[in-house]
Amino acid sequence: MSQASFDASIPVLTEVLKAEPLNDEGAPPPPISTEAQLEAEAIDGWTDAEWAVMEHRLSVRIMHQLQSRVDFVLEQRIKDSMAEVLSHALHDLTNEIRIGLHDTIEKIVSRAVAQELTHLQAQKK
Questions:
Q1: Closest CA to 20 of 12, 28, 30, 10
Q2: Which position among 21, 39, 59, 84 has the lowest Cβ density within 10 Å, counted as fewest Cβ atoms?
Q3: Which CA distances in Å does 36 have to 40, 43, 55, 121?
């Protein structure tokens, strides 16, 4: 048999199948996604200062999101409350204006009728 030449670019079986640690049940652990593995490796050696910066950034981001939501809900509630208050105020104001107009028109008509009757009576004499 002839011996094939060895090509270094082709992986051997031991490189392809790395020995995986077994879990408590004797089975290999579920594969970790590349993203999760990269994330775990990225934060593995963080210093206290780096953790403090991350905590600050997360706090700022969460506060910003909460504040925008609180502002929106507060605005909506104020608008709803103001709409109800303004509706009642407008209704009351309309009633006051209506009553005032009725009184004024009644007085004007009464005065005009009285003047006209006086004028007619003066012409008869």
A1: 28
A2: 21
A3: 6, 11, 20, 106
